[in-house]
Every structure is written in structure tokens, then in C-alpha cells.
TrEMBL record:
Domain HTH tetR-type: 20-80
UniProt DNA-binding residue ranges: 43-62
InterPro entries per the UniProt record, alphabetical: DNA-bd_HTH_TetR-type_CS, Homeodomain-like_sf, HTH_TetR, Tet_transcr_reg_TetR-rel_C_sf, TetR_C
Protein name as catalogued: TetR/AcrR family transcriptional regulator
Positions with biased composition (Basic and acidic residues): 1-10
Annotated organism of origin: Herminiimonas contaminans
Transmembrane intervals: none
Protein keywords: DNA-binding, Repressor, Transcription, Transcription regulation
Gene3D superfamilies the record matches: Homeodomain-like (1.10.10.60), Tetracycline Repressor, domain 2 (1.10.357.10)
Region of interest called Disordered, as start-end residue ranges on this chain: 1-20
Length: 213
């Protein structure tokens, strides 16, 4: 009689080798390298040195440099969007929400614990054509932030804080441009007091609802 078990039993596939390093900690360190140098300027040797791993380990854990970058951006953006949602939810008015955003940006852009400026604004500004996909992703991230600003301004219009004639998208675009400008200033070693002064000047452009006679 034929031995069926010999025909049906298949060798078990061996599982992948477990990572020999802390993936989240390595990703955090890679994020800081991209933040400091930008996507294309960050070399593989700088990344692996900061992450404390070898190139084969990087490829095994993250795929390639582009995937590592996109995952680092996702990590950064998720934290930023969560913080922004909380900030906007706690602000009593749209004006207060935008003012808090600009002030917190001035503080964060000059925080000594990480590179100056904003990763999403700076990391893919001077990429070559080969990095078009990366630039597209970064643009989408910036547009997401601008969309959140627009939504908070629209809420202010609905609540009567702002005139109904205000174009929420245009006003949001203005403050998004201020935020990006503050990042560039921070990269040019602009100090915190100057960034806070820029934030204060930008808020003087905030429209106010007309008081009924």
C-alpha cells in the first residue's frame, strides 16, 4: 500500500529571521537624517550609520531608501496631524486655532532636539526628476495640512466669527504659505523670536466680522 503521508506531507517554510534591531527606533533616527539633509542628499551610509544597521538590514526591514523615506514621512505626518487636530479642537475660535498653529510652528521649527524647519516642507524641495513620486507624496502631505486649516476656517465662518464673504481656501492658502516661509526662515538660522514676530504679523491680516450697527 502506498504511503500517502509521504506524498501529502510538505516541508514547512521557514519564517523570516527576526530583526536584530529596534525597527521603530531605527526609523526615528532615519527620519532625523532625512529631515536634516533632504531625501536625495541623505546618503545610504549616513542613514545606516545613524540607524545602527547594515545596508542589507535596511533593505530587509524597509525595502529601499524611498520606502524608508516614505515611512519616515508617514511617521512624522501622523504625529503632526494628530497634534494639529487636538489643537484645533481645543481652540475656541478659528482665529485662536490659527494663531496657536503659527506660534507652535515657530517653537517647533527652532526646537534644538531636531533639525530646524519642517520635514514635509524641506525634505523634497530640490529633488531630481527621478524622485517625482516622492515630491508628489510630499505635496499631498502639505495639501492635507492646508485642508485641515481650510476646514477650521470654514467652521469659523459657519459660527459667525468670520464674514461669509471670506474665501476659506484662499485664507488657508495664505497661512499655509506663512508656515512654509517660517520653515525657510528657520533653515536660514532665524531665531525663535523672529519667527514669533512673523506669526504675530500674519495674524494682523486676519479678517473680522462686521459688527451690526
Amino acid at each position: 500500500m502506498e504511503n500517502k503521508s509521504a506524498q501529502t506531507d510538505k516541508p514547512r517554510k521557514k519564517g523570516g529571521r527576526p530583526l536584530s534591531f529596534d525597527r521603530e527606533a531605527a526609523l526615528e533616527r532615519a527620519m532625523l537624517v532625512f529631515w536634516r539633509y533632504g531625501y536625495e542628499a541623505a546618503s545610504l551610509s549616513e542613514l545606516t550609520s545613524a540607524m545602527g544597521i547594515t545596508p542589507p538590514s535596511l533593505y530587509a526591514a524597509f525595502g529601499d531608501k524611498e520606502q524608508l523615506f516614505l515611512e519616515a514621512v508617514e511617521r512624522y505626518s501622523t504625529k503632526r496631524c494628530d497634534a494639529l487636530q487636538d489643537m484645533f479642537a481645543q481652540a475656541p475660535t478659528a482665529r485662536d486655532a490659527i494663531e496657536r498653529l503659527l506660534q507652535s510652528s515657530a517653537v517647533d521649527n527652532t526646537c534644538p532636539s531636531h533639525p530646524p524647519g519642517c520635514l514635509v516642507v524641506m525634505a523634497a524641495t530640490n529633488c531630481s526628476a527621478s524622485a517625482e513620486h516622492v515630491q508628489t507624496v510630499m505635496t499631498e502631505r502639505r495639501e492635507n495640512i492646508e485642508g485641515m486649516i481650510t476646514a477650521r476656517i470654514e467652521q469659523g465662518i459657519q459660527e459667525g466669527e468670520l464674514p461669509t464673504s471670506i474665501d476659506a481656501a484662499t485664507l488657508a492658502n495664505f497661512y499655509a504659505a506663512v508656515l512654509q516661509g517660517m520653515t525657510m526662515q528657520a533653515r536660514d538660522t532665524c531665531d525663535r523670536d523672529k519667527l514669533l514676530a512673523i506669526a504675530s504679523a500674519a495674524m494682523r491680516a486676519w479678517p473680522v466680522a462686521k459688527v451690526a450697527a
